[in-house]
Amino acid sequence: MSTDISNIPLLTSLPADEQDAILAKASTSWHLPGAKLAEAGEHAYKFFAVLNGSVDVVVGGAVVATEGVGGIVGEMALVEDDRRNADLVAGPDLQILSIMSWDFRSLLESCPAFAAAMDGLIEQRTAERAARGG
């Protein structure tokens, strides 16, 4: 069974060969509400895209963002090669697509449209973080 990425704009905007390369490296999983996908201060090992449900981005105990279907989380620390700056907490009915860090970095090198899309997302996230004083 193939993974349906039709609700993930960042991925559906990519050429078919890059989508195929990404899906070849990705896995999917379901998570219970409240489960921590990642914790602030940890090394980053995964990139996440929300297939169903939502993920809360929590900084200092406060929810600073919620990413629903189609949202991308966990990319900042991977791209910046830094520790996570937020907890990622599962909301109801969360199904995610995840890519391990070494595969994510390889995809950035081999998939130029994916790399450009990630650059744009990082620029957006950096501006959002600056706007909230983080």
What would you note in describing this structure?
By secondary structure, the protein is an alpha+beta fold. The protein has a single domain (9-123), classed as Jelly Rolls. It has five helices and eight strands; from the N terminus they run H-H-E-E-E-E-E-E-H-E-E-H-H. It has helices at 9-12, 16-25, 75-80, 101-110, 112-131, and strands at 26-31, 36-38, 46-52, 55-59, 62-67, 72-73, 87-90, 94-100. Strand 4 (55-59) and strand 5 form a beta hairpin. Helix 4 (101-110) crosses helix 5. The protein is globular.
The beta-strand count equals 8
Succession of helices and strands: HHEEEEEEHEEHH
The CATH architecture can be given as Sandwich
Instruction: Supply the CATH class.
Output: Mainly Beta
Rg over alpha carbons: 14 Å
What percentage of residues falls in helices of 4 or more residues?
A: 25-40%
- Structurally, the number of domains stands at 1
Q: What strand line-up does the widest sheet have?
A: 1-8-3-6
Cα(first) to Cα(last) distance is: 41 Å
Low-confidence stretches: none
What's the main sheet like? Answer: 4 strands, antiparallel
Supply the number of helical segments: 5
Overall mean pLDDT: 92
CATH topology, by name, is Jelly Rolls
